[in-house]
Amino acid sequence: MPSFTVNVKWGKENFKNIEVNTDEEPLLFKAQLFALTGVQPERQKVLCKGINLKDEEWNMPIKNGATLLLLGTKEEVPQEPVEKPKFIEDMNESELATALELPAGLVNLGNTCYMNATLQCLRSVRELRAALKEYREDTSSGSGLAGLASPQAITMSMKNLFEDMERSGTITPVLFLQRLHIAFPNFAQTGESGSYRQQDANECWSEMLKMLQQKLPAQKRSAELTAKHSSFIDQWFGGTFDVEMKCTEADDEPVSKSKENFLQLSCFISTEVKYMHSGLRLRLKEQLTKMSPSLGRDAVYSKTVSTV
Description:
Helix 3 crosses helix 8, helix 6 runs antiparallel to helix 7 (174-183) and helix 6 crosses helix 8 (201-215). Strand 10 (285-292) and strand 11 form a beta hairpin. The chain has helices at residues 26-37, 93-99, 113-123, 126-134, 144-148, 151-167, 174-183, 201-215, 223-228, 232-237, 276-283, and strands at 3-10, 13-21, 45-48, 51-52, 67-71, 105-106, 170-171, 239-247, 256-262, 285-292, 297-307. The protein is an alpha+beta fold. It folds into three domains: 3-71, Ubiquitin-like (UB roll) (Roll), CATH 3.10.20; 98-214, Cathepsin B, Chain A (Alpha-Beta Complex); 238-307, no CATH class. The strands form three sheets. Strands 2-1-5-3-4 form a five-stranded mixed β-sheet, covered by helices on one side. It is an enzyme of class 3 (hydrolase). It comes from Anopheles sinensis. This is Ubiquitin carboxyl-terminal hydrolase 14.
């Protein structure tokens, strides 16, 4: 077995009588040098008579007593972190939510999941959170029950709730629920047992948007886009349809064209509709009955809408 004893010079340090086995790969010798110097093998440059040692073969002459030159710097030992790491299994609910960037939870106050789901959905819109942070209370709003049921009260209550959700992992939205019940008494209906009745999340969504629509101004972008929208809700949650109305019973009656603003798209549902896009497309064309000026009576019209 070709085994030799060599010396290694590394900077100001000298390592004597290091055993080298040339039957083994040079990478194992470099591992020995790493143990002695702390220089990672990939950072080492081992020289003998101007020849640089490779990782996979002994491409230099080796003999007993030879002196090898090691070039390379060792990496500094990582400093102990100021704040010790904490494992997920050791975290409480609040710490876990922060680490995983989970949204704050809302406590169900008895069939209030419709409200909680609507609030969580609204809060997921970054632009809405920013607009609510900038919103300032309007001191001219009414007092008493009328004031508590106003768009101002709902908007401020949502602003405060979203700020609380940034500071805590779980929130009990009692104050917002109270404002919602005052503004919309139908959501406060109770059953025979005294618990709140189940409500429709889409209806809650529509009512909340109408409230915010009255208080949040459109964000300032270009002058043209700002003038186009009357509120933040129209700007970020709404759209405009081009509408064509054609009387199917009077071919000579001219097609009427108009524009129609919307805050949500309706999805037509039937046994034939299997995909959402199909249901949305079907709602873009429908028939309705209205007074025909050319016929002087009610007639069937075909209504076709397309996005602007």
